[in-house]
Amino acid sequence: MRRSFSGASRWAAVSTCCALLSLAQPAGAQPAEPSVAVTIDVDASRPQGELKPVWRFFGTDEPNYATMKDGRELLAHLGELKPKAVYFRAHQLMNTGDGTPAFKWGSTNLYTEDKDGNPVYDWTIVDHMIDTYLARGVRPYLQLGFMPEALSSAPAGTPYQHSWRPGFAYNLIEGAWNYPPKDYRKWAELIYQWTRHNVEKYGKAEVESWYFEVWNEPDGPSYWKGTPEEFNKLHDYAIDAVRRALPTARVGGPDAASGGGKFMDQFVAHVARGTNHVTGQKGTPTDFLAFHAKGQPSFVDGHVRMGIATHIKRVDTAFGKIAAVPELATKPIVIGESDPEGCAACPGPANGYRNGTMYSSYTAASFARIWALADKHKVNLEGVLTWAFTFEDQPYFAGYRQLASNGLDLPVLNVFRMFAKLGETRIAATSSAQLPLEAIIAEGVRGTPDVGTIATTTRDGKVAVLVWNYHDDDVAGPDAAIKLNLSGLGRGGGRKVVEWRVDRTHANAYAAWQAMGSPQSPDEKQYRQLEKASQLLPEPARDLAVRSGRASLDVVVPRQGVTLLLFERAGR
């Protein structure tokens, strides 16, 4: 039997937030107006190029959660999406401490010093983390940070671990962990020894498949207390150390908060043509570039209003800047954190989108635009990392940005399951109600809803059509009544149609929890009901007549809903 919570005091701390979340998406809410008529046309005979699975990257501030009960289960669910091709990024992997997690905190104690100042390496905790990833089909996007206490150049008396908690000012996460090293050679030797250890333990071929990047958001005061040039030095020493241990390692960065800001400009110039702080040569080895892009939700007239325009605009600007640097224009890009807003552990009414289908529909709509921006700028987009995981032993649906709550998958995770079912080749697809990319960047989705689509074919001939009905405002709205027209299906036989849905009544544990009265301590029977409600299950398969390679069917997608339709030849 799974755990239940009797800690009323913990619930008191988040009761206001949970009340707002309940208001944000009432269970079983009905559309306030008649359906909107939409036409979607899909032509399977017109390939539009590769659709890269950029969605297979995830991450979290709290690294130790990954080895705990719910963390292990969620990692397994992520690994099942695309085994050995899903990547996980975590902060705090080099922090000093005993491995006890807290909000926006974790530690591995991989580096300390003896009384004479000699290094003491201990890989026990960090090995356990990586073992946990690999056992579940997930690989590391290995963040080299933050600064071990013995190496920190922080002024004497600076606390090492912060005491931040949800609701506190964000700058209280600062501490001695975010300072440059007092000895760059010891810093480099630590990175070298860790990389060499990983190669010895996991094998050269395995570690070659990982990503190595240095630090997090070095352009902001919360994560970096040095200057931009000091970060370039930190980066150069770390990358040189990784490559000394494994010359074929995949290295990059800098996972800057702003991909279009001055910090990114100077970093790109440094790695492309600046003087390397270690070698004295031109440039720094760079296999990929990474930046962050976030949205900006608000709380307006009693409801959440998302800021998808801010999110997509930041991606647009960063892609444009990278594409303009000849030495780096073709390098793979990973958006190292791509989310509706900035702080996964921070509560507040503007973040009331997190448990329900607003988060899942936003995810579908935003990924579609990021794919489109990669095409627009002709950049090599390799990954879009969702900064969401789970918060262990917290109240049910407490309102953090996560993929699961107490072992119950949230609707947003089921959209990633839909992404995993898409094919490798994009095909022509248009929707009469899909907003243009330029309109999303300029205004978001504040008027008519965005009823959009992506369609693909798989290697075995299946056609997959993803449809979403998104709006920035989390209020009741019309369903989309869709006439889906397919062509280019080829000769012979009909098709079988399988449909998956994420909406207010499907694949939605949060709505089911609300419907049973939002129990603070679900019993075993209630928990099993919630588990079932969280699952992405197919609707009964239907036969579809195909004539001269054409077919059509009617589909209804509720406001903030996402639907996936898979068409395969009848008889398979």
Task: Describe the structure concisely for a colleague.
The protein has helices at 8-24, 69-81, 124-135, 184-202, 204-208, 228-245, 262-273, 308-323, 357-377, 411-421, 437-443, 509-515, 524-534; strands spanning 36-50, 57-60, 86-90, 111-113, 119-121, 138-144, 211-214, 250-256, 288-294, 298-300, 303-305, 332-339, 380-386, 404-405, 408-409, 425-431, 450-457, 463-470, 480-487, 495-502, 542-544, 551-557, 562-569. It is an alpha/beta fold. The two termini are 39 Å apart.
CATH topology category name of the largest domain:
TIM Barrel
Give the number of DSSP strands. 23
Structural class: alpha/beta
Cα-based radius of gyration, to the nearest Å: 24 Å
Return the CATH architecture of the largest domain: Alpha-Beta Barrel
CATH superfamily of the largest domain: Glycosidases
User: What are the low-pLDDT stretches, counting only 5+ consecutive residues below 50?
Assistant: 1-31
Largest sheet geometry: 9 strands, mixed
Describe this protein's structure.
- The chain is of the alpha/beta class and 572 residues long.
- It folds into two domains: 8-48 and 423-569, Glycosyl hydrolase domain, family 39 (Immunoglobulin-like), CATH 2.60.40; 52-421, Glycosidases (TIM Barrel).
- Helix content is 30%, strand content 24%.
- The protein contains 13 helices and 23 strands.
- The strands form five sheets. Strands 21-20-23-18-17-16-1-19-22 form a nine-stranded mixed sheet.
- A hairpin with a 5-residue loop joins strand 17 (450-457) and strand 18.
- The radius of gyration is 24 Å and the shape is globular.
- The two termini are 39 Å apart.
- The relative contact order is 0.15.
- Residues 1-31 have low confidence and may be disordered.
